[in-house]
Amino acid sequence: RMDETELKLNQEKKEDEERSVVVFKYRWVVVLLHSLLFTSSQMTWLTYVSIATQIKSAYGLNSTEINFTSLIFFLVYVPVTFPSIWIIERFGVRVGGGIAAIATLFGGWFRMLGRYHYGWLIVGQGIAGFGSPFIINSISQLCAEWFPEKQRVLATGLVCSANLIGSAIGFLLPGLVVTDSGSLMTLLFIEGGVCAVTSVLYLIFYRNRKSYSPETWDESMRAKRTDFKTSIKSCLSNRNLWVIMALAGISQGVFNTAATVLTQVLNQLAYTDLESSILGGIVIIFGLIGCIIIGPIIDRTKSYKISLMVCLFVATLSLSIFSGILAPERIVPLGVVASFLGLFTTPTVPLSLDLGAETSHPNPEVVSSGLINSFGALLSITFTLIVNRILDDNRTVVAATVLSVLMGVSFLFTILVKQDLKRSEEEKLKIEER
Question: The whole model's pTM is what?
Answer without folding.
Answer: 0.78
